[in-house]
Amino acid sequence: MIRSRLTILALALGLLSGLFSACSRGAESPKPEHVVLIVIDTLRADRTTPYGHSRDTSPTLARIAKDGVLFENAVSQSSWTSPSMVSMMTGKYMAGERLTIPDDQPTLAEGFERAGYETAAFICNDILSEKTKFQRGFDVFEQFEPYTDDDRIVQWLESGKGKKTFTWIHLAEPHDVATHYGPPNEEAWRFKKQENELPPGRIEFLRDFATERKLADFEPSVARMRAEHGGYDDDVAFSDRRVANFVAALERAGLYANTAIVIAADHGEGLWTREAYDVGYRHEQIAKHGAQPTMLNLLMGTHGNQVYRELVHVPLIVKAPGFGPNTTVKSWVENVDIAPTLFELCDVPSPTALQGKSLVSLARAPGSDSTRKVFSMTRYCSSVIDEHAMQLILPTPKGACELGLVPELYDLRADPESRKNLAAARPDLVATLSRVVEEKLSVGLPGESAELSPEVLETLRKLGYVGDDGNGIIQTAPDLSGTPTDELISVALDGKLPCLARLEAAEALVGRAFDDAQRARLEDAAPKVEWVAVRSALANALAGPISR
Questions:
Q1: Are the C-beta atoms of 366 and 323 separated by less than 8 Å?
Q2: How far apart are CA 187 and CA 470, in angstroms?
Q3: Which of 331, 364, 397 is the last residue of a domain?
Q4: Residue 200 — very low, low, confident or very high, per pLDDT cuts 50/70/90?
């Protein structure tokens, strides 16, 4: 009798436990009816309130983080807008820089459009345009200038009741304008008027740099940097106030609770943390016009061709039904993870196989995946950061050939500004992480070699990415389409030739069909090529069609 009662009690408890568990699972995974992806251009994570900045630049972002999940260590896939946003919108890594979303790559917006969502994009960056295919999947696609009002966006957000919507808002106030920061209306300046402190150790670095380069502008340059740091913070605050307007619109419409909000950035900003590469428009005046070298033009004030932490560590905050509240994830994650995360959150079928990993399980169980390694790239170098915050920066052939770059390894926990290169002391880790870089490059979307239109070049020039002669980050590869396959193979495998020539030949082989002799030659020699990018390009070529 007692055993029978215990059995009944156990069954009852088991049933109640199962019901509680089912209810809990149900409570944890409601599907949002609305998605708002807010990308703030050029936003460094460490200049925001929820990531510990000493100034309260972003109370709205902090509020959203308290309502959801803050990913403490997120990186962008490049340090400038176009390749970073191509990656975010496709869920794919990049093997080369490109402006345009490939025609054969479905986009995040197209996935939501096919699932019955009404879609809209409001974009404050002219290179994210119809010309570069970023309008794909959007019913509404509008572009606007920085510091404008939010009426049109607010109107769209408030109209979402009774339907499902996907919205991408791309703000750009923190982006530099002729290397000056701060809203155009000085009445909006708050931090620029204050005495701005530079990070610990920065003054010593700047003083040593000025002494080494025999520069006489130390005091005025430091004063200018302090002011520009304040102006950058004012720009961040301006964008945060815009986000507050969007949140208020959702609340007025009764939509906030059932909306997934993602706060992200396409890349960070240099803010004179280290020396700039001696290339592109930022050094044109020195090289061509006889301008005097200064700390301001020799140090990396902005962004674009490096992958150091300040340029790729970005905020990533996700507020969604069933997430949080006030949850922090310390594992390293990537912008390429945003698309699969949103598809899983909303139970929307992905239109293609994605290379990013959904963050849903990690958001609900922080620490459940602590072995992630994250990847970033530019035309000059690629980076991987492992789960122990060790960052390898590996030069591409172009970076090694044109700039003399060498492998760099940093312990970001002990050396957050990446001053001490540990590559020579840790060859084992360099080799291990180099293989990760090689793997990411081998699967990434290829770079763009098409001729750029005058309109696109002018847009890039206004944003500071290229100089007056078109020289800068975007450069077109030579047209090798008419070169015989055997000749390209010989160039790609010739160890006496410059590495850049070999890379261009290897990339020209991608998509070609090889006969048995050509394939055998490549399969034998390709693994022995010393350059990671050349090996990756040859691997991509070997994965192509077989000649019949």
A1: no
A2: 36
A3: 364
A4: confident
Residue 25 lies in a domain: no
Q: What is the mean pLDDT of residues 103-128?
A: 97
Which 3 state secondary structure label does DSSP give 548?
coil
What is the structure's pLDDT at 467?
Answer: 62
Taking the model in full, what pTM does it have?
A: 0.84
Q: Would you say 35 and 120 are in contact if contact means Cβ atoms under 8 Å apart?
A: no
CATH code, domain carrying 277: 3.40.720.10
pLDDT score of 288: 57
H helices of 365-426, where? 397-403
Q: Is residue 48 part of a domain?
A: yes
Q: Looking at the structure, do residues 246 and 388 belong to the same domain, yes or no?
A: no
Q: Which of 332, 364, 396 is the last residue of a domain?
A: 364
Strands ordered across the beta sheet of 381-385: 374-377, 381-385, 390-395, 408-411
Does 195 fall in a domain?
Answer: yes
What would the mean pLDDT of 294-306 be, rounded to a whole number?
Answer: 91
Same domain, 229 and 298: yes
Which domain range does residue 398 map to?
374-443
3-state secondary structure of 170: strand
Say if CB 161 and CB 485 are below 8 A apart.
Answer: no
Q: Which residues, 6+ apart, have CB-to-CB distance to 98 below 8 Å?
A: 82, 83, 86, 445, 446, 447, 448
Q: Is residue 222 assigned to a domain?
A: yes
Strands 34-40 and 69-75: unpaired
Question: Which residues make beta-bridge pairs with 231?
Answer: none
Q: Please give the pLDDT value at position 48.
A: 98
Q: Which two tokens stand for residue 420?
A: 């001490």
- pLDDT for 272 beyond 70: yes
Strands (E), 118-192: 118-123, 140-143, 165-171
Nearest to 522 by CA among 497, 485, 548, 496: 485
pLDDT in tens, 362-405: 999 998 888 999 999 999 999 999 999 999 999 987 887 778 78
* Non-local CB neighbours of 528 within 8 Å, separated by 6+ positions: none
DSSP for 232-278? HHHHHHHHHHHHHHHHHHHHHTT-STTEEEEEE-S----TT-SBPPS
